[in-house]
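Here is the promised in-class demo. Please do not try to memorize the tokens; focus on the logic of going from shape to residues.
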């Protein structure tokens, strides 16, 4: 699929000189890892033996869809990165290996959290919290949400931080890659965007670990932290896009 997107020039910036249009072994291996991650999300659900089990499986369609979308968002960033720079040295292979590891570990807390949030919405509307109780087990409780938020937040923060490091490294290789002023700006935009994406879940983890003398308050504050994403990303995107257009005009790019 990656090569097909490259051939059709999907997601290409006409002002950027793409250096990785040929498929590499690193990309092929990474695609297999992403496919395995999605497979693990599917296999985490057992085969239904009764109608009740079948109904529960159908209820998991929406959480599964959310998980696939989030994983594909990360994959698309990876696709654009290697398309832009085509780097395959030791540092990139190391960072890419770390990214693969994080993705494969991240899918389980992602799937659990997506299912929990979906079941929470249904429980609040029906006032039936039996499934939520089953998810955390007889000995579990709301305190377990603290560790769920920490696991999810760490995974998300480390993934986007790794992507930010990959963009920072590409910026340092500007002479070898022969990045012009516009391409360097786009590279810096990528590193800033991923750093912001990493800071929000990192903040959520910190807030989840702070003792507010109320477990419910701990999880509420940590969860609502993710509502910072829209304003932060919209403001950053608006500012960077404005500067990008000014740079295009300044460099007289067509």
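The designed amino acids, position by position:
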């Amino acid at each position: 699929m990656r090569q097909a997107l490259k051939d059709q020039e999907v997601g290409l910036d006409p002002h950027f000189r793409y250096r990785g249009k040929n498929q590499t072994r690193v990309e092929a291996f990474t695609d297999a890892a992403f496919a395995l991650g999605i497979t693990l999300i599917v296999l985490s659900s057992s085969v239904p033996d009764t109608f009740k089990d079948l109904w529960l499986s159908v209820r998991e369609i929406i959480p599964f869809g959310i998980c696939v979308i989030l994983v594909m968002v990360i994959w698309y960033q990876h696709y654009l990165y290697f398309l832009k720079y085509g780097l395959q040295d030791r540092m990139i292979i190391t960072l890419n290996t770390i990214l693969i590891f994080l993705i494969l570990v991240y899918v389980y807390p992602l799937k659990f959290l997506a299912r929990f949030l979906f079941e929470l919405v249904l429980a609040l509307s029906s006032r039936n919290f039996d499934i939520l109780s089953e998810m955390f087990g007889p000995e579990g409780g709301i305190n377990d949400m603290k560790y769920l938020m920490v696991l999810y937040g760490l995974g998300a923060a480390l993934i986007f931080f790794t992507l930010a490091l990959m963009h920072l490294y590409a910026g340092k290789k500007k002479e070898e890659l022969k990045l012009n002023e516009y391409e360097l700006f786009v590279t810096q935009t990528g590193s800033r965007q991923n750093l912001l994406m990493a800071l929000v879940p990192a903040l959520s983890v910190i807030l989840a670990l702070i003792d507010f003398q109320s477990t419910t308050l701990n999880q509420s504050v940590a969860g609502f932290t993710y509502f910072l994403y829209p304003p932060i990303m919209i403001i950053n995107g608006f500012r960077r896009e404005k500067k990008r257009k000014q740079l295009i005009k300044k460099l007289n790019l067509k």
